[in-house]
Automatic annotation (TrEMBL):
The keyword Disulfide bond does not apply. It comes from the Eukaryota. The lineage of its organism: Eukaryota, Metazoa, Ecdysozoa, Nematoda, Chromadorea. GO terms for cellular component: plasma membrane. This is TLC domain-containing protein.
Amino acid sequence: MLHQFVFLGVVALLFRLEYLLARSVCRKTMPCWGENKIRLFSVRVVSLTHAFFSSIAVLTSLTDPRFIKSPYDFFKEETQFVFIFSMGYFLYDLCDMGIHGELPNSKEYILHHSLALIAFSSIIVSEKFFGVAVIGLLVEVQTVFLHSRTIVRLLIKGPEESVMSEFFIQMNMICLFFFRHAPTLWLLYFLMIVDEKCGVAVKLIVSASLLFLEAHNLHLTQLIAKSDGFFGFERQKLDEDTVDPLGSVRTSECEKIKKAGGFTRKMRKVE
């Protein structure tokens, strides 16, 4: 158990160091960028790192078909570190929001991260639902394209941006259905219709969590559709304050300044 806590702490610390490094590099190499843009870019770099390595770990884990055949009771010890890696990211992100005064306006993220931390902790302790968690983490595949889309639009301007942005915009929407909606709906179907091993109380709790996740996915789909021009919406012209389809989060201090008629930039958080 000690080595698990050590791994958790090291992961959270490394994400914090990556953020500080990304912010420092941006300040030195992008002198024309404001603090808001530097903050957004640095946060996205960290989020992309988490999504990228989580995706590799999850896709590698799913090469073992037992995770899909027995998502409730198949246990593989090394897979717990995939969950702990994500727990380290969520802990870092909660601390990061606290450091930058964004917690008061980040209730959805606090709920999302808290539920994930509780769920992963319960899974590791009980050694059950490993397959459910691995399949659920397929969402990170789509998150890679979501963050890449934002980073490209912040970093690259001109003709190159239109080509690269279009690629990530289209892949982001495709993966949204294949790696967010489809796995979540399949897990709900499995728990409610197929599974006969899981107790009723546990099944209800897990199903409720999955329903919350799917509601989050639907909300994200709507935001991306409006931002990137899908399903009849007109594609928006985006700047650094509107490039993120997840929406903006303003610090409490910025809200006070805005009400006073001053600074109007938006600080932005990530999923």
